[in-house]
Amino acid sequence: MTLHNRTAIVTGANQGLGFAIAEAYLEAGLSGLAICARDKAKLNEAADALRAKTKPGQRVFAMTCDVAKTEQVDALVAATLQEFGRLDVLVNNAGVYGPLGPIESIDWKEWADAIAINLTGLVYVCRAVVPAMKAAGYGKIVNLSGGGATNPLPRISAYAASKAGVVRFTETLALELQDHKIDVNAVAPGALDTRLTDQLLAAGPEAVGEAFYQRMKSMQEGGKMTPLNKGAALCVWLASGDSDGLTGKLISAPWDPWPGFEGHRDALENSDVYTLRRVMPKDRGQDWGG
Fold first, then answer.
1. 213 is catalytic
2. Which one is catalytic: 124, 159, 213, 274?
């Protein structure tokens, strides 16, 4: 899984999973790495840490960017292309939980802002990089999703709705771009021990619900959270030539056997495996409803 001679943008890369992905990309030989985040101080710290890990021929470029602001996204993409002369990979990692609590009591602006970062911001970053990838006749887009895409998350509705939207957009964009050899996939990294989990636990059971709170608390205290390197490794594979042609899928880093996908490529590429679909009565052994 080499990324030699490839360049990438990783959003939200100043900490957590985004930083782990950026680090793994450099370890895999990525030539040009552009990282962005909203917090300038933390971004600069992350950039320095990543530059300390570079080898000859590797460069790291950092630029503050709020993905919810189109003019900042345009500036990031333009600066990356000017810096490296090409763009092969985009990882949309930037994201927030948004307000936690019942829909009728949370702050509406915070809810809408979360959608702007997690969904519409992600869509716009994709939109901004597509022309360069089309011109090159090749590209890789990796969108970070999560458990909110496949399961209801009461009291965390902005996150759940946005992540479900990310997956359907991923599937749609994959079809739009498949003739241009641009692969678009979504990654579910698992339950991670990051600032988002800390935020959730700090909000307490009254905000996120007793059952969910206790489950996440137990996982964190018991050391059962998914290691960041699992999601990072999957993102390396999806950015490499080893995954060429696999597109429009939602892949779970901790649960799906993606290292062995090569032996099942025909089945994967010509089916709705690892996609979001409506469940019909017959899918559950019922003989009514079509």
1. no
2. 159
